[in-house]
Every structure is written in structure tokens, then in C-alpha cells.
Amino acid sequence: MPDMEEIKRKAQNAAYTATEKAQDAAAAAGEKTVAILGYAGEKAEALKGFAGEKAGAFAGYAGEKAEALKELAGEKAGAFAGYAGEKAEALKGLAGGKAGAFISFAGEKAEAIRDAAVSGMTVMSERRSLEKNYQALGEWYAAQCGEDAPEAVADIVRAIHASQKKIAELRERGAKESEADAVPEEAPAAEASAPDGKTEE
Q1: CB of 193 closer than 8 Å to CB of 199
Q2: Closest CA to 142 of 155, 130, 132
Q3: Residues in a beta bridge with 193
Q4: 152 phi and psi, to 5 degrees?
Q5: pLDDT digits (tens, 9 = 90+) for 152-178
Q6: Residue 157 class from Cβ within 10 Å (0-12 exposed, 13-18 middle, 19+ buried)?
Q7: How far is CA 69 from CA 73, 80, 84, 124, 129, in A?
């Protein structure tokens, strides 16, 4: 039968050994934890410093770029303003030239239209005078020829004489009708009545 005291002693030794190992492990873990925390703190400080440096460098770079862009924008604006002014002056001069040319062209066209109108009126006046003279000459020739007109114009002369005869007949008829309308009709004599209402015989 095993000795209980021996067993108890071995159990106590094992417990003591386990406790020591646990304490050693805890101490080692604490040291590791402290070392890890210290390393992490150092890394965090280093990253913080690096980030600050990068942020400062980026801010300086951004400021420089902003100033450069500002100057470039000013130069571009000035150049554009100068270009716009030159173009405005050029367009102003071109518009003035075009206006002058248009006014001159319009004046020339007005003169041409006026000359054409005057010429047209002169032609119409001369044409009316020519037609009037032709008419007078024709009337004189028709009156001179009588019934003995040359064969080339005999039909025209006969037609003229026929129209003259017709016009004379129509005028004569109109004159007679006018005279007939001018003679008043005699009104029937009214019977005289006596004061007593009897008709006088």
C-alpha cells in the first residue's frame, strides 16, 4: 500500500514547482509586455514626428504651388486682358471701315436708283409725246386720205372712218334723248271748286 505521506510530499513539491514556474512565466510576460509597450511608444512618437514633418513639408509645398498658380493666373489674366483689348480695337476699326464702306455703297446705289428713276421718267414722257404725235399724224392722214387711201392702209382707214361715223351717230342719238328729257310734260288743268264745294261750270 503506497505511503500517504510520500504522496502528499510529492504533491506539495509539484504544486510549489508549478507556482514557481507560473510566477516566472508571469514575470517574463510582464517584462515582455513592458518591452512591447515601450517599443510601441517609441514607434508612435517616431511616426508622430514623421507625420508632423511630412505635414509641414506638404503645407510648404502647397503654399509655394498656390503662390505660383496665383502669379500664373495674374499673368494669364493680364495677357488675356491685353489680347481682348487689342481684339476690341481691331473689331472697332473693322466695324468703322465696314460702316464707311456700307455708307459709300448705299450712297452710290441711291444715286444709281435716282438716275434710273429720272431716266425712266424721261423715257415715259418722251414715249407719251411720241404716241401723241403719232396719233395727231394718223388723224391728219386719215382725214386727208378720205376713201382713197393706199391699199397698204386702206383697211385701217376704213376702220377709222367707221368708228368716227359710229361715234357721231351715238352722240347725235344722245343729244336727241337729252332734248326729249328736257321738255316738261303739260300738267292737267285742275278743276276749280266753288266756296260751297260745287264745281263751277
Answers
A1: yes
A2: 155
A3: 199
A4: -65, -30
A5: 888 888 888 889 889 999 998 888 888
A6: buried
A7: 6, 16, 22, 79, 87
Q: What's the pLDDT tens digit per position in 58-69?
A: 778 888 887 888
Q: Which string of DSSP letters, residue by residue, matches 146-199?
A: TT---TTTHHHHHHHHHHHHHHHHHHHHHHHHHHHHHSPPPPPPPPPB-TTSPB
Three cell numbers, residue 116: 434710273
Report residue 136 CA to chain centroid gap.
62
Classify the phi-psi angles of 90: left when phi > 0, otherwise alpha if psi is within -120 to 50, otherwise beta. alpha
Cα 14 to Cα 17: distance, rounded to the nearest angstrom: 5
Which residue do the cell numbers 489680347 mark? 83
